[in-house]
Amino acid sequence: DHEQNASTTAVRMTGSSGANLFACLCSGIATLWGPLHGGANEAVIKMLEEIGDPGNVDAFVSQVKENKKSRVRLMGFGHRVYKNHDPRAKILRKMCRDVLNALGKKDALLDIAEALEHRALHDEYFIERKLYPNVDFYSGII
């Protein structure tokens, strides 16, 4: 990956204490609970559920652009390290589609996410601010 993040550090620190593999992995997973590391994908899911339908994406994007008035945020976009596209997001989007196709299922949240991504990637407001989907944007759907 691109850096030593919180969950990686937790796994390594737990492992350095001599704990077994399962304890180390539990430590890393537990670190994902907080909003600063792993909780971001939960915020994305909540946002997609609130949008409710791909047809509501334009109205949502308008609210995001009026951020100071509406306080609506676009979750799962932008990254401290990746200032352009996050390659992991593209991989996870494909994984979402592949898993759903293999299961013969359709997920409304994925449809909303793809519509929102398409809208944001073609909007100067988001392009100027270098807001592209990050790993959290699709990981919650999986």
From TrEMBL:
EC code: 2.3.3.16
Keyword annotations: Transferase, Tricarboxylic acid cycle
InterPro entries xref list: Citrate_synth-like_sm_a-sub (IPR016143), Citrate_synthase (IPR002020), Citrate_synthase_AS (IPR019810), Citrate_synthase_sf (IPR036969)
GO molecular-function terms, A-Z: citrate synthase activity
Pfam families named in the record: Citrate_synt
GO annotation, biological process: tricarboxylic acid cycle
Pathway: Carbohydrate metabolism; tricarboxylic acid cycle; isocitrate from oxaloacetate: step 1/2
Domain of life per record: Bacteria
Broadest EC class assigned to this enzyme: transferase
Family of the protein in this entry: Belongs to the citrate synthase family.
Annotated PANTHER family: CITRATE SYNTHASE
Name used for this protein in its record: Citrate synthase
Organism: Anaplasma sp. ZAM dog-181
